[in-house]
């Protein structure tokens, strides 16, 4: 790897959808951009792999829509939420955005397509390269320390972007309470998430199915190669009771949901289970230090049942890119990085604060079966209420 110091306007650490989206937009606007990603792509990723309809509009702007649609994923026309005893409520994909469908596609495929596109637009992409520290001069972040094949490099940039997902590997050096923006609801290691691709799952082909049960929920939808993706969240207590055996958690916890018993009865994992513990939802510091901003899950982690985490990653990547490009174009901008932080934080709050608040409210019901039951019953009575709530957990303004 050769990284020349001072060569970049922007260094982005993390090559998931947020980092790749920011890089594509910035490189397309002429900025000198570098991405450091710790993994080698394509790589599997723990996720429901429900790519919401609005993401397809982002893909079009990013120049990857055609290849995403040609990648063999499933067209998902609706999401159906099932309470534990089998009552259900549906949310059609056509309520969200012009494409009128969502996509079921593995993160291995999706993230790889985005990272390839970042390279095509001129961003320099370094895989198997981990961001391990920040270069700080007189209180301002001036670059990053990177590690690749056991060697450590330093790389300077006018602005550094933390796109490392829930890890928030760079922002965490400043603590979650930096600049008073922390709104994380902590559930200290009380939840564990699992995911695997399954053979023989019996979910409907064009439907994303969500199952609620005590202490969590899970989602099943088709992806490429005739497989289905099952991704679920369970309480750490239930996981311990199943001796952390993912298959057992699926059978004993997820399949306490009546519909999940029908769809998962004969299912078999076609790959290793991935598992991760979740330690909180909501917002973190957006500009944790002078010269550093956070995007995607590093900025906020929205509840997975909304199926809109990837949307927020793409949107915040785009928002950060627009804000940074404007800042880079200002004369004397380097002397005033605070202006960038303030501009980004204000725009971010305007775009995302309301939906994060709504999700925090709905989350309370999602983890308690009787509340989830009541909510599904009530929402089943009114299309209008269902549509309003579903939209409130996602994009604020509908494009007509
Ligand atoms: C259980 C669960 C289910 C979900 N289901 C869905 C769903 O169905 N639909 C949806 O839209 N969203 C879903 N989400 C949310 C979605 O996965 C995230 O919102 C999205 O991945 C965020 O993108 P990101 O780019 O911010 O972070 P990530 O996708 O996490 O990407 C971060 C990247 O940074 C890299 N990285 C981390 N640390 C470093 C480092 N130090 N140096 C270099 N690289 C580093 C990682 O390897 C990774 O590639 C789900 C989340 C969970 C937990």
What is the overall pLDDT average?
91
Distance between the termini: 46 Å
CATH architecture: 3-Layer(bba) Sandwich
* Sheet of most strands: 9 strands, mixed
| Number of helices, where a helix is a run of at least 4 consecutive DSSP H or I residues | 11
Number of strands: 19
> What's the level 1 CATH class?
Alpha Beta
| Uncertain residue ranges | 178-182
- CATH-defined superfamily: FAD/NAD(P)-binding domain
Q: Secondary-structure element order, as H and E? A: EHEEHHEEEEHEEEEEEEEHHHEEEEHHHH
Bound molecules: flavin-adenine dinucleotide
Class inferred from helices and paired strands: alpha+beta
Taken as a percent bin, the fraction of beta residues is 25-35%
Total domain count: 1
Please give a structural write-up:
The chain is an alpha+beta fold and 400 residues long. It has a single domain (8-185, 279-392), classed as FAD/NAD(P)-binding domain (3-Layer(bba) Sandwich). It is 34% helix and 28% strand. It has helices at 17-28, 53-62, 65-69, 107-120, 236-241, 246-252, 258-264, 309-329, 337-366, 369-380, 383-392; strands at 8-13, 33-36, 50-51, 74-76, 78-82, 88-92, 102-104, 124-126, 130-137, 140-148, 151-162, 185-199, 207-213, 216-222, 228-235, 268-269, 274-283, 292-294, 300-301. The strands form 3 sheets. Strands 5, 6, 12, 13, 14, 15, 16, 17 and 19 form a 9-stranded mixed beta sheet that branches. Strands 1, 2, 8, 9, 10, 11 and 18 form a 7-stranded mixed beta sheet that branches. Strands 3-7-4 form a 3-stranded antiparallel beta sheet. A hairpin with a 5-residue loop joins strand 5 (78-82) and strand 6 (88-92). Helix 1 packs parallel to helix 4 (107-120) and helix 8 packs antiparallel against helix 9 (337-366). The longest helix has 30 residues, at 337-366. The radius of gyration is 21 Å and the shape is globular. The termini are far apart. The structure holds flavin-adenine dinucleotide. The site of flavin-adenine dinucleotide (FAD) has 38 residues, from helix 1, strand 9, strand 15 and helix 8.
